[in-house]
Amino acid sequence: MKFIADFLIFISNKTVPIAFVILLMGVIAGLIRTISTFLQRRTQLISKKLEPEVAKIKEKYLEEEQLAKLSDLYKANHYSFIIPTILKIVSIFISISIFSVVINIPSFDLSNYHNSTAFFAIKNIFEKQLIVILPILITLINIICMFITSTKKDLKNNWKVNVISQIVLLFVNVVFSNIFAPIYAIYTLGSSTTSQVLNIIINKKLKEIAIQS
Fold first, then answer.
1. pLDDT means over runs of 10, the chain (213 residues)
2. Alpha-carbon distance 155 to 111, whole Å?
3. Residue 115 burial (CB < 10 Å; 0-12/13-18/19+)?
4. What's the distance, CA 160 to chain centroid?
5. Which of 27, 113, 123, 163 could, after both became Cys, cross-link 190 (CB 3.0–4.6 A)?
6. 101 — phi, psi (to 5°)?
7. How far apart are CA 192 and CA 31, in angstroms?
């Protein structure tokens, strides 16, 4: 992971403060993860839609002819489980790699880092300190997106679970941000916000696919 950290430091020295590089890495990780989730859910909807036709093909055709017919059917409906799976693996690898760097970067040798260590009001993102504003901001974004994507019925039926989950999320982000320094909250801000905002678009698109099914 030191190689990745050195690479991020190199990029930051040439461009913007490392806090914004980490924020961008979070955005990229959140983007890939969300696209992977969307493709998986889309594949599930397509699979459900094709169940009657698949059953007919399996009943009517045998072996190679059956495989050929199923392949044509899946291609015609843009069905693929390989791409979502690959993206899922890539997103997990990126998330683990960047997260490992994020939580360990304060212990790395920063003697070759020459850019700013600040992030708005935070003077040094590498120093452990009490950080509350960023975790609160992350939680507020999650709550806003939850209200946008959920129906009134869902919000009413699941309000206890939603409240508890957001309190736990806030607590975890505050604790982790202080254990691993503010850089953790910056990465989470990028990844979580990207996922939540994209989910608004994705949920709308999945509803359209479900209706067409």
1. 79 90 89 86 84 86 83 82 82 79 72 86 82 88 85 82 88 82 86 88 76 62
2. 50
3. middle
4. 24
5. 27
6. -65, -45
7. 9
Contact 17, 117 (CB under 8 A): yes
d(CA 71, CA 74): 5
Helix (H, G, I), strand (E, B) or coil at 31: helix
Q: Report the SS3 class of residue 128.
A: coil
**Rounded to two decimals, what is the model's pTM?**
0.80
Report how far residue 188's alpha carbon sits from residue 80's, in angstroms, rounded to the nearest whole number.
30
Largest CA distance in the chain: 70
What is the separation, in whole angstroms, between the first and last Cα of the chain?
45
Place of tokens 């975890």: 172
Q: How many domains does the chain have?
A: 1
Distance CA 145, CA 199 (A): 8
Q: Dihedral angle at the C-alpha atoms of 188, 194, 200, 201, nearest 10 degrees?
A: -160
User: Domain residues for 90?
Assistant: 2-212
